[in-house]
Design brief:
- The chain has 257 residues and is of the alpha+beta class.
- It folds into 2 domains: 2-30 and 119-252, Umud Fragment, subunit A; 40-116, 434 Repressor (Amino-terminal Domain) (Orthogonal Bundle), CATH 1.10.260.
- It is built from 6 helices and 14 strands.
- Strand 11 (225-226) and strand 12 (229-230) form a beta hairpin.
- Residues 122-222 form the Peptidase S24/S26A/S26B/S26C domain.
Length: 257
């Protein structure tokens, strides 16, 4: 494992912010059964799960339906430390069972230790091209190439690189993007998202459509033309066809000198 400190500049509306970013790159020799770093909300969920099972809910099938999981096995994977819980689902869990949770306590020392040991969000080398020409691959089928860690991305879920130029200048080819999974698929018009749609994955600015069940996928690069047509023309997507929706929370561009 090695660590590389980078001073990255991010420009937005002529405001330049400097970040000290640590990238931890470590290739894993083999797949392990348990995740190496449990997030604080996952640890809290596991503790509350054992405290509330049989009291607030009867089993994993009931809990999975309430939290919107496709299968009770998703709960098992979290309880056995094989994956972290989605922050939005954890908030749903706490809101649904707040009356039961009020009478329970979560060991602060455990939460403090896990927060201290947080090494960052996993970085995947899967090509997520801004021009949207790459065939979809499940990020969960890949091994992380490292971790991204700096203040402000603690609630993000993973990071992907950008390939292509359709979202330039907002997203530059080769930059890394910190993403937060939006489980309820609620879209804020005008924001930039990473989406898995159909057989493709892409970064797009999603705009409101005239129809409630559709959004317009807009590319920020409106200068490149093919003949008299935009190379990256906007197009309509059915909301129901979006497999995964992730909000772009932070961007780290290549440092050029």
């Amino acid at each position: 494992m090695f660590t590389e400190d980078l001073q990255c500049k991010y420009t937005d509306n002529s405001v330049i912010a400097k970040y000290s970013v640590k990238y931890f790159f470590a290739m894993e020799e083999q797949r392990v059964n348990k995740i190496k770093h449990i997030r604080p909300e996952t640890l809290e969920f596991i503790v509350l799960y054992h405290q509330l099972r049989g009291k607030a809910f009867n089993g994993n099938a009931e809990l999975a339906e309430i939290l919107g999981f496709n299968s009770p096995s998703s709960i098992t994977e979290i309880i056995k430390n094989r994956q972290n819980i989605d922050p939005d689902k954890f908030r749903t869990f706490k809101e649904r069972y707040k009356e039961f949770i009020a009478g329970e306590t979560v060991p602060e020392e455990k939460l403090a230790v896990e927060k201290k040991n947080f090494i960052g969000i996993p970085m995947y080398e899967i090509i997520a091209t801004a021009s949207g020409v790459e065939v979809y691959n499940d990020v969960n089928d890949s091994q992380p190439v490292g971790h991204m860690n700096f203040p402000g991305i603690e609630d993000c879920d993973f990071a992907l690189p950008v390939w292509g130029h359709s979202m330039y200048p907002y997203l530059e080819n080769g930059c890394w993007v910190a993403l937060k999974v939006i489980s309820d698929k609620k879209i804020l018009p005008g924001e930039v998202y990473y989406i898995e749609w159909g057989d493709y994955r892409m970064y797009k600015r999603l705009l409101a459509s005239d129809k409630d069940d559709e959004v317009i996928a807009h590319s920020d690069n409106t200068t490149e033309m093919i003949g008299n047509r935009l190379k990256y023309a906007p197009f309509v997507i059915k909301k129901s066809e979006i497999k995964k929706l992730c909000l772009v929370k932070d961007i780290h561009k290549k440092h050029n000198h």
